[in-house]
UniProtKB/TrEMBL annotation:
Protein name: DUF2007 domain-containing protein
Start and end residues of each DUF2007 domain: 1-64
Entries under SUPFAM superfamilies matching the protein: GlnB-like
Provenance organism: Cypionkella sinensis
């Protein structure tokens, strides 16, 4: 798995997941439950991971839709 996206904005994660899912690319979001530890202030970014073989296409899809990778 490779890091595709890092952001503190949950709406960006949801949008990116929808875009990738529409293209048949599986993704996994890490650090989703960190808000429990941080008190919900959005201090820790969430990370979206994709398979190594999907990384190039996933980056192109996000770039085409104006999503910066934040990495």
């Amino acid at each position: 798995m490779k890091l595709l996206l890092r952001t503190t904005d949950p709406t960006v994660i949801a949008f990116a997941q929808a875009l990738l899912e529409g293209e048949g690319i599986d993704s996994f979001v890490m650090d989703v439950h960190m808000s429990t530890l941080e008190g919900g202030i959005g201090l820790f970014p969430r990370r979206m991971m994709v398979a190594d073989s999907d990384l190039f296409m996933a980056r192109a899809i996000l770039a085409d839709n104006g999503i910066s990778d934040g990495v």
